[in-house]
Amino acid sequence: MLFRSRAIAFLLLIGLLFGSFYMLTNSAGKIRIPSLVGMSVNEAKSTLVGLGLSVQVREQSFSEDVPKGKIITSDPAGGGGVSKNGTVFVTISKGQERIKVPELLGLTLDAATAALAKLNLKVGSTTKAFSPNVDLDLIISSNPPAGSDAKKDSLISLTVSKGIQQISLTSFVGMTSDQALNDLTELGAEVVTKYAYSDRSEEHTSE
Predict the structure, then answer these.
(1) SS3 call for 149
(2) pTM, full prediction
């Protein structure tokens, strides 16, 4: 039993020695780097120059979280090892990606959809409204409006014209101007009043 315990202890010792040797041989010459995320390139250079390392910008990418000009990621990442006099590659933030909503007034729904797709934007909800200025089935407006900043893949709501609103009118002959004006205003009509003389006279019945 004692021999078995000693054998197990010996094997464990061999394992520890082998593991330590493996770690030493693999980490030999490697310098562990700190996390550079959120630093500027100059800050990263100042941090690594004392370790005998240099920094190189590999690419720039949009980021919703990391401010423009700051480091998003590094290769190797923080905690990784680099050979002495080696280079750490970093990705720099271009800031938040924003797209200008294009002018869609007067386009068909299909044309507006295509114009938005080219900018990585999408059509959201569509509503219809009467318009005295925009022809039937053409775009009146968008929400957000043209010129606004939108995130990539944002949904843009569109209002499509139903054309000019038609109103059914009845005869107003014989009404006072105030009566006619009130009725027309309730129908949503824009009224322009003109006054003129009339040659019509009242008809009288004779006995």
Answers:
(1) strand
(2) 0.60
